[in-house]
């Protein structure tokens, strides 16, 4: 805040007096001088692997998709998601007629695969808000999203997405523990010691 006693000066004297008034200690850096920090000479990293993930027996994109999201894993996620949504519905207030849970319809493997595909596509096409992916405005439209599912359906699937019934409310990681274990074991098939 400027008071009536403050004044403005065109000279650099005000800067020099203020910088000289600071106490010089070993911890302070003089910001008016350039310094050079020596770097350690390192050997360049030699990449010995390939940029492709090699999975035995997988030749097509859909084959790779099915490898990453095997049917039994997707079936488990669909089952847990539907079960979680049913529990939320049972515990919801019946007076809330406009609640999104009242619109819930059980999901299936095909819809879940489409849902995951849209999530992956959101990582490629970046937009600041979720609603913008489903916009019909010519300037914002990404029509593939509306062709696959409605914004309301996408949001309720996102809200009800569940990997495992959590019996221990204090252990939040348990909810995705089985999924994480599956992918740790599954990813070992894609790599070899030669890649490292």
Automatic annotation (TrEMBL):
<feature type="region of interest" description="Disordered">
    <location>
        <begin position="1"/>
        <end position="25"/>
    </location>
</feature>
<feature type="compositionally biased region" description="Low complexity">
    <location>
        <begin position="1"/>
        <end position="23"/>
    </location>
</feature>
<dbReference type="Pfam" id="PF13843">
    <property type="entry name" value="DDE_Tnp_1_7"/>
</dbReference>
<feature type="domain" description="PiggyBac transposable element-derived protein">
    <location>
        <begin position="60"/>
        <end position="189"/>
    </location>
</feature>
<dbReference type="InterPro" id="IPR029526">
    <property type="entry name" value="PGBD"/>
</dbReference>
<protein>
    <recommendedName>
        <fullName>PiggyBac transposable element-derived protein domain-containing protein</fullName>
    </recommendedName>
</protein>
